[in-house]
Amino acid sequence: MSLPATDPDLIRAACHDPSALDRVLERWLPHILGWCGRLGGPDVDAEDLAHDVCLRVVDRLAQLRDPVAFPSWLYQITRDTVRKHRQRRERWFRLQWRLPRFSTVGPPDPDHALGKIVLRLLQELPEAQRDVVVLCHVEERSREEVAALLSIPLGTVKSRLRLGTARFRQLAIEAGLEAELREAAGWP
Predict the structure, then answer these.
(1) Which end of the chain has fewer CB within 10 Å, C or N?
(2) For residues 19 and 26, what is the distance between their CA atoms, to the nearest angstrom?
(3) Largest separation between any pair of C-alpha atoms in the chain
(4) How many CA atoms lie within 13 A of 57 on its CB side?
């Protein structure tokens, strides 16, 4: 799914006009939801995270200096929101292990779909590599588009993609999923 065209006039108007803000969020909500789901992993409520992202956009839109940079700015807000959510969740799980009587951690569900396993493996990648792998391989964006979205050089995208893909394959091998992923993704 390609990103909506950035309309600087609409972005500027959204700072003061609620109907313009509604149009901006309506255009971008499918992308926000997708990013939240893919970056957050299978254990997050993507709609809840997307709601938090939208609230942050409403609060901070007036601070956006260059409306043309809106896609990159929005992705950064989404990534930061997901990161904060994951940090809170990790702190909670650490607390659960310290207080076992409150632990709800049980045996893994044997009926997990391959997609959920892939999302779990993605969560093990370093964040910078995960962002690029998700945007390039999962969302099928061009490297140039990813560089613009993340506000990083194209060479950095290529490097992170190479390292992230290699690390993902290694994690898949360690998890014994190489054959399933090879078949699903068409790996050689």
Answers:
(1) C
(2) 10
(3) 55
(4) 29
- Number of Cβ within 10 Å of residue 58's Cβ equals 14
Which whole-number Å values give the CA distances from 33 to 98, 126, 127, 168, in the listed order? 33, 21, 18, 23
What tokens appear for 61 in the block?
């839109």
- Please give the Cα distance from 24 to 53 (Å, whole number): 13
Q: Which two tokens stand for residue 174?
A: 């360690």
Per-residue pLDDT tens digits for 109-162: 334 556 677 778 888 999 999 999 888 887 888 999 999 999 999 999 999 999
**What tokens were used for 129?**
């590599």
CA neighbours within 13 Å on the CB side: how many for 45? 4
